[in-house]
Amino acid sequence: MRLLTPRTWYYRHGVSAAPRILTAASWIWAWATARRISRGSGFDPGVPVICIGNLTLGGAGKTPVARALAHMLRTRGVAAHVLMGGHDGRLRTPTLVDPAHHSARDTGDEALMIASETPVWVARDRAASARAAVVAGAQVLILDDGHQNPALTKTVSILVVDGETRDGEWPFGDEAVFPAGPMREPFSAGLTRADAVVLLLPADLPEPDPNLVRLFAGLDVLIARLEPPVPPPAGRQLAFAGIGKPWKMERALRAAGCDLARFVALPDHAPLSETTLQGLARQAAALGAGLLTSEKDWARLPPAWRPRIVAWPVVVRFEEPQALVRLLAQALGAG
Fold first, then answer.
1. What is the CA angle 158-162-165, rounded to 5?
2. DSSP 282
């Protein structure tokens, strides 16, 4: 059974204290994570590895950043391949994702979402997928969601941080580790392995919180924005999303001027069954609204439903692209 991400995790000043049993479990989680990282030897695939990760359990924007980096490298003639774990996918051995033949059930939704633009490999064993990608011609590997995975030697590690700090929210909450809070590991431990930070802001937030920026003194801090390349569709819409922080999509849609009749939040990567979709369609019909979802959710739709539901994509735009170019050049040994 999947549960919605608790929004209270991200309130900075402890709206609700975690029960003692969750706090104790968080100590075990943090210990196990630290032990796994310390015991990893790290396979060197022989090409640069750019790790895109975060310190929390989801919703920071890792995959859109990985997608943007792959695009930037591709436009410069560098063959970049993305490595993913294939969350919820059934493929276990290294597989090059083919949108014409694979479904989200095979590869996970995020891999399918970007595979039409750049080569994406899914496998539980990141070292094995790195070997396969290099044999296939990869000159650079982008490791999506790998900050706590020691399987590969990393050339540069970039943390993606949700920079939206409003309505009482803070990207790390009270810094409690899962299951008591959103952290994958203690903040200070994760930060010591990072080389750079991408602060990802929504399109309508003018500047990042200076208190947040100060946390990353000594690291390269890149400001980027998560922006829709197209406006929301005209007319009333019932939107739904099964992403890490679904409330952020609702907020973004309203900021973009969407006539939002209703927003339905689903758990991250929630299966979109026929029963669920029929229920959403009935609600939309009663409201005289169209159906709208995120690009990631759209990748999980059964083919028969795709013509009936509009995907609302978002892209990452860096405020200072040259700062990213310099960081990538350093990773590639070119600067």
1. 140
2. H
